[in-house]
Amino acid sequence: NLLGAHSAAPHAGVASHHACRRFCVAAAQHGGLPQGPPAAPRAPRASGRARRRPSARGGESEGEQAAASATASSVRPGHIYFVATPIGNYDDITLRALRVLRDVDMIAAEDTRRTGLLLAHHGLGGKKFVSHHEHNWRASAPELVRRARDEGLSIALVSDAGTPGISDPGAQLAMACVTAGVPCVPLPGACAAVSALSVSGQSGLEWVFFGFLSQQGAERKRQLARVAGETRAAVLYEAPHRLLSTLRGIVDADAAAAAPAPPTAGARRVLCARELTKVYEELFRGTIDGALAHYGEDGQGVLRGEFTLVLLPDESRQARDAANAVEDRGDTVLALLEAQAGAGALLSAAVRDVCAATGAPKREVYNAALAIWAKI
After folding, report:
1. Is the pLDDT of residue 298 over 90?
2. Closest CA to 240 of 282, 194, 184
3. Which of 14, 75, 199, 246 has its CA 20 to 30 A from that of 222?
4. Counting beta carbons within 10 angstroms of the beta carbon of residue 98, is it exposed (0 to 12), middle (13 to 18) or buried (19 or more)?
5. Cβ count near 87 (within 10 Å)
6. At what angle are helices 315-342 and 362-373 packed, to 10 degrees?
7. Is 234 helix (H, G, I), strand (E, B) or coil?
8. Which residues share a beta bridge with 211?
9. Cβ–Cβ < 8 Å for 153, 183
10. What DSSP letter does each residue of 72-85 carry, written as one string?
11. Please, are residues 137 and 169 in contact by the beta-carbon 8 Å criterion?
12. Is the model's pTM score more than 0.90?
């Protein structure tokens, strides 16, 4: 019975233990245990379920492995990392960015003092800095590439605020990396343009980024004309002392280009995002005319801190441009059909060719062709 089988097992174990002990004593008296070929490895036990795979670090738990990976280096030699930093709030930085800034051999900063304050806030003092800004990039970009390629240094590039390469000389360093074959690694993060767009109410898929406009001269006038003529959403950065000048310049450029049609820029919707992510953040929503009044002498707006402007799509201009395009296409269709009729082409062949050439709807081309062929 089961009880008898369980009670007999201890006695069998004791007898086996004594026999093994007598064997070992006898072997020791005769020169040791007998030598022979090593035993074959034991075959794994078959099972219907997959056996649990051992941990990659022996007996470490998942938490211990995560802690170990957090302290491991997150950078590779000879790589340049383009690290996004906060645009105002020091906490708007990714964990990966902090690890890279901790581990790189050198940090190339647009403003070393400002970046030093950011690192000190996160307990990352004692880093080696070099400058990379609009006044020295022609010399610093090739030097950074050389040190990464020839010396194997890992380098992080940071701008004053936001993502490197957006309205700063990071783009020139990226191109130098591409030319020299040095890997450049993007670390995503804060960007004022994207942050403003996310709360602008812009529902379209297309938008155009202008960054900072030229401060004066003919180039500034050309850029203002491009902004005024852009019917898609447009994003630009502006300093507080030039905000009103830029808004007025857009209205004036639109008026000059729209004549004799009535100008539309003053009624165009705009978001003026001031001091994004900072204590005194302000979002003004309205029209360009409304923004001029809000930030003018008698308005309540504050002209302090950097502005991010989002001009929403100019719907009235889009409608006008679409109507003009249809009218121009109609003139082209008529001219092509008359040429086909004069050459003696069949109506059906002419309709097919003109549709292919202009992209006009077949019914529109066919009706126009009927009127022309009826006169032949």
Report:
1. no
2. 282
3. 199
4. middle
5. 23
6. 40
7. strand
8. 236
9. no
10. S----TT-EEEE-B
11. yes
12. no
